[in-house]
Amino acid sequence: MSHTATAIDTRRTDGASDGGRRLHALLVEFETPSAIKEAARRIRDAGFVRWDTHTPFPVHGIDEQMGIQRTKLPLLVFACGAVGCLTGLVLQWWTNASNVDLPAALNFIRGYPFQVSGKPFWSLPANIPVIFELTVLFSAFGAVFGMLVLNDLPKHYNPLFRSQRFRRVTDDRFFLCVETADPSYDPQHTPALLRSLGGTAVEEVYDEPTPPAPTRIVNRVLVVLLCLALIPPAIIAKARVSRSDSPRIHLIQDMDNQEKFKTQRAYPLFADQRVMRLPVAGAVARGELGDDAHFERGIVGNGYAEQFPAHRPEVRLTAEFLQRGHDKYGVYCAPCHGFDGSGQGRINQRAIELEEPAWVAAAALTDAERRSRPVGHLFNTITNGIRTMGPYGDRISPEDRWAIVAYVRALQRAHYPRAGDLAAVENIGPRERDGGE
Amino acid sequence: MQHVIDISSDRLRLEEGRWQPLARRLQTAGLGAIVVALAIGAFGLESLLRAYVMNLCYYVSIALGALFFVLLQHLTRAGWSVVVRRLAELFTTAFPLLALLAAPAVLLILTGGLLGFPAAVHQVYPWTDAQYVAKEPLLQAKAPYLNAGFFAVRLAVYFAAWVGLSAWLLSRSLEQDRTGDPAITRGLGKWSAPAMYLFALTLTFFAFDVIMSLAPSWYSTIFGVYYFAGAMLSFCALLALTVHLLQRAGYMVRAVSVEHMHDVGKLVFAFVVFWSYIAFSQYMLIWYGNIPEETAWYAVRQTGGWIALSLLLLFGHFMLPFLMLISRAPKRRLQVLAGLACYVLVIHWLDIYYLVMPPYYFKLSDPGTAPFDLLGLLLAGLLAVGMGALLAGYVLRRMAMHPLIPERDPRLTESLAFTNI
């Protein structure tokens, strides 16, 4: 390491004459962080504004020495985060909970209330994750793009790149550079001041009269890329306004076209060429013999059964059986008929609120008509459906259907108790009576 | 190149003669408050037991935060924190006394209650009640784990692990004060990795055993993390407060700079956010799943006087400290930071209160039966002061025995010169 007296190097940046070029800046080279920190303090005190230091690594404390004020970035990030937070809040309110009357032309931006697992349309606990994610996303964008903007980046050209000496800034040299455009720059005094800073060299950096623009090939590539980038949105825009008979585009082939036989397809191995094999003629699935009309269809003789099929071991009118009915009722029946059997379930309420023309109001299971129905009739309604209510025979097993019937009977009894019922309740222990802790 | 900070003029030792009387007074006052609490608690044994368990969990959490901090600094080979690490090591000397304080509660559960306590023990820890367990299939299934004998064994293991770990960490660090051997730092770094596993398991199961089993049919797998978040938060707050008090008394003024406290403030802020994240994660899953045995735990806390406490935590444990600590200025003003630290310590106490104090038995049909327990609040407050003073005196004695910073740690120079960019 040569620590000779500062060698003043007034060599032109690339040896060319300065005809047409203008002096851009003076560059001072240092060998240690402490040297450049000391120099930075002196330049700061001399009142320069258009100057900078360049170091191979972050030098602790150089911001203070240069008199750089703290960045405004945190405020920007906070503002972006707050905007993200509100965006998440308003977005979810608008899409799922708003009920704003809009002109028909604006229908495409209307919200669509979508009920998920019985939660209210507007419920903060469900909304917080999205609000949180958008807050983080917007803050991160604010931090990254705000940093780029505040630092004047990206910048494809800087006159300092013309200096051979400056290349060592990424390795082991520290540079201080004062631009001639600085109001305090003085052609006589400033070079003298810089020479006195104790750097290993001072260099004049010249710039072209007009800063070089990106070369034509770069421009052309950019134009081509821009045009190419317009193709996908153009295709999407076209697809939105036109119809096509051809199958849709398969982006992921092996998800769409799997190596397997699908239902209803042909399969040459079998004589009838069906993929789906029929059961052997006369086969009956286990437990579906259908020989017990009372248990499986609720029918005794030619009419509906008046009694529960007590001959079946599955059907026992115990507390557990009623609890089973209560659970199944909550799953299948309560959405329309309501938990209390009043017919005021959530779906019913919603359909009436939306004035659905095809909706047939769910029956009140506790009214006089249903109270007078034989149990077999109720069982038949669950099994085969009635009016707009679909059949549930394929979804609920017979014993569970009987459990539901039993529970409906209990609901009816709860709404219209008979004399002596209260005395029976008094005999039940307090913990069971409360129905849960 | 870092310029060396000269700390030769710094006072880095508490003079025993000056601080012993204060420590003795603190311990006497603490014992007095505990005795008063026990006397008043005779009128409500259930409230007393809950308040005692609650405060035990509170002070254990702070000591666990300190233990985690020390392990973390060794594990990550942190340079910045060397000047405050000794304080954390000294906080963990509270573990033997905490074990002693835990012993009566554990004995009470083990013996099934003495002196008319069984009813109270059964109310606080329903799984100790054989009659109740006989009615609950879920508790019968848990019985091989959740029984008094195994409970006592587990707690003994946890406290043994913590006492052992903290004693080992401090003794190695003090050994380095004498010898200046850099191999000790390397060894601590190496062994803190398995120690971290031990810490994570013991902390998680301590939270499960002591707090979650208060509502034995309720479970949340994230619960240990929840307790940990509060532990680390309250430790960082106590660290900031302690440094402030020590510096006001004229100690370690040059050794610990505003840069270090800025970082401690960042940790407080980070763990405020982490606690909220975990607390909400637990709440949201249970709210969304909407399964009665899980939601009941929250249902108790959303009725009667408890809803006020729940909302206080939402605003006071998250929003307020979040907004107060988000900017740089309060973290770099030690007086402001110390004030915020006091606030955080109080709100974390309320968080543990919220976990432990509400009753388990809850009737959906009659929410009014889970009233806010004023006697419990009084006892909890008394025991907080009592145990706090007792522990503070105990730790102060140990602080007066050793230097306040690891004087010959190989990373001390780096730590002293630390600055935030």
Give the SSE layout.
The complex is a heterodimer of chains A (about 425) and B (about 425).
Chain A: E1 7-8, E2 22-30, H1 33-45, E3 51-54, H2 62-66, H3 73-96, H4 124-150, E4 174-179, H5 189-195, E5 201-207, H6 216-241, H7 253-256, H8 293-297, E6 299-300, E7 303-304, H9 319-337, H10 346-353, H11 368-372, H12 375-384, H13 398-415, H14 421-426, H15 430-434
Parallel strand pairs in A: 1-5
Antiparallel strand pairs in A: 2-4, 2-5, 3-4, 6-7
Chain B: H1 16-41, H2 45-75, H3 82-91, H4 95-110, H5 118-124, H6 130-135, H7 137-142, H8 148-179, H9 182-211, H10 223-248, H11 258-289, H12 292-301, H13 306-325, H14 328-332, H15 334-356, H16 374-399, H17 412-416
Helix pairs in contact in B: 1-2, 1-16, 2-3, 2-4, 2-5, 2-8, 2-9, 2-10, 2-15, 2-16, 4-8, 8-9, 9-10, 10-11, 10-15, 11-13, 13-15
Tell me what you see in this structure:
- The complex is a heterodimer of chains A (437) and B (421).
- By secondary structure, chain A is of the alpha+beta class.
- Chain A is built from 15 helices and seven strands.
- Chain A has helices at residues 33-45, 62-66, 73-96, 124-150, 189-195, 216-241, 253-256, 293-297, 319-337, 346-353, 368-372, 375-384, 398-415, 421-426, 430-434; strands spanning 7-8, 22-30, 51-54, 174-179, 201-207, 299-300, 303-304.
- In chain A, β6 and β7 form a beta hairpin.
- In chain A, α12 crosses α13 (398-415).
- The longest helix of chain A has 27 residues, at 124-150.
- Chain A is elongated and about 120 Å long.
- In chain A, 18% of the residues are buried.
- The model of chain A is unreliable at 1-17 and 430-437 (pLDDT under 50).
- By secondary structure, chain B is mainly alpha-helical.
- Helix content of chain B is 74%, strand content 0%.
- Chain B is globular, with a radius of gyration of 22 Å.
- The model of chain B has no long low-confidence stretch (mean pLDDT 91).
- Classes of the chains: A alpha+beta (437), B mainly alpha (421).
- The interface between A and B is medium-sized, with 20 and 21 residues.
